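Recap quiz, item 2
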Amino acid sequence: MSRAVSDTPIRRSSDTSQFKSVGKNPPRKESREKVTGKAKYIDDLTFEGCLYGKTVRSTIPRGKIKKITFEPGVPWEEFTVVTAKDIPGKNVVALIEMDQPFLVETEIRHMAEPIALIAHPDKGLVEKALTKVRVEYEELPAIFTIDESLSGRNIQRGRDNVFKKYHIQKGDPAPVFSRPAIVVIEGEYWTGPQEQLYIEPNGVAAVATPDGVTVWGSMQCPFYVQKGLKPLFNLPDDKIRVIYCVTGGGFGGKEEYPTLPAAHAALLSWKAGGRPVKIIYDRMEDMWATTKRHPCRTRVKTAFAKDGKLLALQVDATMDGGAYLTLSSVVLSRGTLHAFGPYACDHVTIDTRAVFTNSPPYGAFRGFGAPQTIFPLELHMDRAADRLGIEPHELRLKNILHKGDTMATGQKMEDEMDIEGILKKAMTESRYLEKRKSHREHNRTASPVKKGIGLSLFFHGAGFTGSGEVFLDSRAGLEITPAGTVRILTANTEIGQGSFTTHSQIVAEALRIPYEMIEVAPPDTAVVPNSGPTVASRTCMIVGELLRRAADDLRDLLIRSSGLSNNGYGPDEFRRAASAHAEKNGVTRVYAKYKPPAGIHWDDQTYTGSAYGAYAWACYVCDLETDLTTYQVEVKDFVAVQEVGRVIHPVIAGGQIEGGVAQALGWALYENVVLKQGVMQNTQLTNYILPTTADTPPIRVFFYENPYPNGPYGAKGLGELPMDGPAPAVASAVAFSLGGKFISSIPILPENICEILK
Amino acid sequence: MTAKISFTLNGKPWTGNVHPLKRLLDTLREDAGLTGTKEGCGEGECGACTVFLDGQVVMSCMVPTCQAEGKKVTTIEGLVSDGDLHPMQDCFIQEGGAQCGICTPGMIMAAVAYANDPDSAEDMREALAGNLCRCTGYTRIYESVKKAMEKMSVSEIR
Ligand code: FES
Ligand code: FES
């Protein structure tokens, strides 16, 4: 089954010749360290006198702790042991709500919940000791499914086990469904949990004394960790320092979660009198205990005119949030705001909720709720096309949003957009129509290998939802170094997405100096301003724009005060002016603060207005084969066409799309989280299957560039977009290969195909 | 219960007192101080810990240190000679083959082994199938390896 490795130059459609850095492909800032093995990830750092920490976790899903016994056979007197009783401040993770303890005090809410912590200088001994901690429980009845949660029989959260609900209303769909001469289609869809599976597991180190706490770790959001630790130790901001280490992938899995191990390591260090403590999860613990993508059940009901015009749309989606709120309300919000797709429809209702179960909390994962609602709608469109006897692309063309149309939230499409162009480009590049015809012919033959091709059309809103960016109130800065170069100061972490590089390009462009003259300060809460979390496809678009503005101010400052010419300058002149300024004035930093773009209004009460300032638009096409003897699906070709504003670094941007597509193909076809008592059972790479080189098809990436007026040089966010589209395109192509038999839940495993063919 | 174990590490003799069953991965990282070799799974599935043992690709998380006795061990740190990067490392930089970088040292070792002996696998996909990358979707990795192989065939760098 050898397949050609595709030649995939990343194609783009705009002219960037006016730029010196933007649109070019300079080597990534940190890549030399990465390819030589010199980059220091958390587990590569050594600390004098370090203790190794481990977490004692619950082995029941719900109940009370009766007794903890430290059994003989281990020199316990040499160990540092921490339970909830040792916590100096508040035993609660400060996130959206204060509902999750760092260590269980009374009631266990889910499997693998942290109960106690142990640490010792001998790593091997800590592992052995972990097996000698016995916890006795009094078990209580638990709930594991959405239906159990909503049944009302076991209420553990509020009055109804519902964390959060949203409702969007545009027009009134109800009467439309009883109109004559319409086609009503209903469906129920399911998307399963998914493990982020960064290749570097979660890990932190901490030193904690009453004078202050310092944490080093693998993380996306140093300031989230700082915020989470403040109440735990009753310390002010400046006494909690959080330092990012090179981070081996995040995908959302290191957004909110690292606060827990950071707090645990810090508590152990506190108890051990300030000795450094490292906690590095092994793969099994990481998969067993940490967050996953929220599973989601969605019901879609549509009314179409016979010609395919979408008359009414009702979506009802329920996400399993797990045992604590963590970020579920915001994940749900993004899911809600992507549930109606890129279609114009006068009558829409969207109802969503996130519910409590006794599962470990589900958390942030690339796409953040959007993939869960895009999958049902897009697959539903395909089922509708099938029922209406209209080609799927034609059904979409009949209903897509154009400039001037309004979304379900009432947001008017004001910017230039060309969804039709994107769809057509994807069809051309994938030879969609031709293949639908030839595949159909092929599938009439006796061959046990059936072919399918399917597409999806979707958008992803960049940045925080609604007024989120205003609340974040981000600041980013630039510093002049004594050498006359410029250092970027942001809290945004390089987690593989290339932010150090794209930020440097933006600053270099704005200052009109070479990329090589820009460096990036490692995110450290003691050094950088809070420019917000590294999430939500916001780092390049939102923080990049702050940096561009700071760069403008910095240049003006040098022109005013240090004799930099207003009529152009070379790198040496800049260097001279900058170092003269630094010499005269000492450390000089220039900051820019977030300002919402004009015309962006959002109402949190009614869920109306501009949910996002910018949308990236895309059409993906998946071409695959289903083998009816093995029930295996093999993706043969994948085309990803998107409009993401200006592309700052085509190779990095292409890499984001390719990686996101592969991750989404995993979600659609391979990655099956097996749950028992609410917790993952297949916690190894031998039984949780990631796409390897053998499973990943050629991924062909095309960018349409349509500069966004409020992004740096026109850039929009793109990191999450590729997670949204592949699953529905896969499911649609599988259905095509099976002669129109739709499988409406993912992952689509061989057993599901076998089942539907029976 | 440690024992004296010696091998050639990146061209230089190395001797240490380690438990003979200690994973080679840990010996390299903890005793030899070479942290370029990474751990992604600890069970031979991800390839982040790939090194050469007498020129053969092995997952160092699955190799007890005693097996290296008297042999030649090459890690990512050993690819740089006199400060010059190996063409494979160079091309991973140029072509965007490294994103978060955690799989990169292992991936580069596997890629170098394939480039040195393209007959060892049917194609690049097969050669790299034991190395997981969650970031790239592999496309940029293929581009990097292809470029490096072109360069290597011209300069005959091995
Ligand atoms: S750490 Fe050795 S193969 Fe994953
Ligand atoms: S670059 Fe991140 S896992 Fe490969």
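The two ends of chain B are 39 Å apart (CA to CA).
Residues A 199, 249, 496; B 98-104, 133-136 surround FE2/S2 (inorganic) cluster (ligand 2) (CB under 6 Å).
End of item.
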